[in-house]
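Please predict the structure of the following assembly.
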Amino acid sequence: MKRLCVIAVGVFSLWLGQRAMAQARDEDHRLDKVKSAFILNFLRYTRWPSDAFAHGDSPVVVLVIGRPDLVEYLEQIVKGQSIDGRPIEVRTLSPASMRDNDDHWRDQVRAAQAVYLPRELDELAGRLLAALSGANVLTISDAPGFARAGGMLQLRPRQDRMAFAANISAIKATRLEVSSKLLKLAEIVHGGEP
Amino acid sequence: LTQRLGAIPFQTKLLAALLAVGVIPVVLVCTLLSGLHFFQARQMAMESLRSQIRVVAIHSQAALSFDDPEAGRETLAALAAQPSIRWAAIYRRSGDLFAVYRVNQEPLPPQQMAGIHRGDDGMLLHEPVHLNDQNLGVVLASYSLTEVYSQLRRDVGLSLLAGAVAAGLAVVLSFHLRRFLVAPLRELVDTAHRVTQTADYSARAAKHTQDEFGDLTDTFNLMLQRIEAQDDQLQHRHDEMQQFLYTVSHDLKSPLVTISGFVGLMREDLAQQQYEELKNSMEHLGRASQHMGQLIDDLLELSRIGRVRAQPEPIAVDALVRDLVADLRPQIERFGPAHIEVEPDLPGVIADRVRLTQVFSNLIINALKYGLGERAVIEIGARRMPGETRFFVRDHGRGIGPEYRQRVFVLFQRLQKQGEGTGVGLTIVSRILQSHGGRVWLEETPGGGATFWFALPDQPPSHDHPATKDSP
């Protein structure tokens, strides 16, 4: 009888743990969706200088580092969407390539219009920002301290909603125009390389 | 309608006219201005509301994009500056309520946009929120133009007040105008009624103003005065006529009585064949019929003065009198040793020659008949006075007592019953002078006797307005 009870409790605990894991997974999926929507909206409120594009009909390129699952969501959301007549293209960059010392990945990120760095790869933030110094590329991340470190937009999930921070001096160092409507909603952060 | 309007008293019409003139433009202008004001205010309020909602919609873009209801509420809170907005809400594209703003006690908008029936009161503004071509949601605002309507109510109230004030002024003015317009008219109408009912032409309308009404009143009074004068004159003539008929019949009758008396006597004399008496009676008969003839001649002459008029002409009175005295020589001698003294250079006058001769002739014969006393002298002279020339014929006889000095000019009035006078001569004189606009009167000669004066005006009256008050 005692064993039976222990087994029951064990099974119940296991079931609880599994359920909690499933819930956490669902929550992560939901957050990814919201983050994708925010990334798209960030693009909508941003204007690039015309020389940031190779051609008049070049797409707006969003480069996502790692996180192929997020890329999936993002691709779903931007499908059929356009910004100032330009289609939106989602590209990925493997974090492994960034650890190489060749400059190929640098050209890749500098050729994009926006770069998203997930929080799981926040150790790459310093390298990324250094590579993008002076480039007209919108830098987005949900890594804590990203904006303070010199990133432009940082997603900050709150309990009830998604908030975000903006580093205005980082934006002003480039020729990007981020709408004041967007900045009005953002928590303003200072810091990083000008 | 015209008849019914015509029956309304003048004062009411005046009041109505003043009210119409005073109130209608005021009310019209006020209504027009209020209406204009209202539409303008409403237009402006609507414009202002629409633009504000449009601004809110633009500012809601980011809030909707980044799902930030707090930012949406902040944006909506700017509408607090618009008191006419009862509530405003941002709905998501899905129709869910995103953010809301409301004035204190106003009800909350529904959670779903589908629950709102547009056009319930029409007081709903609808502004979609777009980002580029993407529809993000919609801003709805329910408003009430209470400000505008209360302003309209105030304007209408003021219009009514202005109309009432105008009406009051019109009434006050009409009461004041009544003194100048209605009262004089009323006075005229009342006087006319009084005169018509009582035939009392001595009534006069009081004059209140110096305008046309005053003029009318004057003219009306003058008319009454004329009527009164004519009425008096008519009465006077009627009395005169009665008197005349009485006198004529009486005076004509007395020679007839004499004649018929003597005819009776003669019949007796004939029967008794007393021819001497007959002859005596026939002489009486002849004298009586002669007297009657004279009487009738004189009456004819008297009536002719009124009927027949000759044009007045300049007359050298000096020559006229001297010729007349020469012509009267036989009669003067018949009445006894009389001397007629004529002043030299008698002034000339403008008169009817025949009638003026008649005046002098009658007065001289009158003096010869009754005025020859111890001094058998008749003086004729003249005095120039301002505006007229006076002549006199003076005797030194027994004179005429003051109580008879008027009566001598009345028809058939004689101071002596005997004698051949008919009592018409001095009446003729008086009548002639009347027809010339002159007059005759009698004074006592100093030292005894009668002096007949007559005056002729320098300007004889025109024939169109005869001063003669002809009586038969």
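Chain B touches chain A at residues 59, 61-63, 65-69, 71, 131-132, 134 (CB under 8 Å). Residues 464-472 of chain B have pLDDT under 50 and may be disordered.
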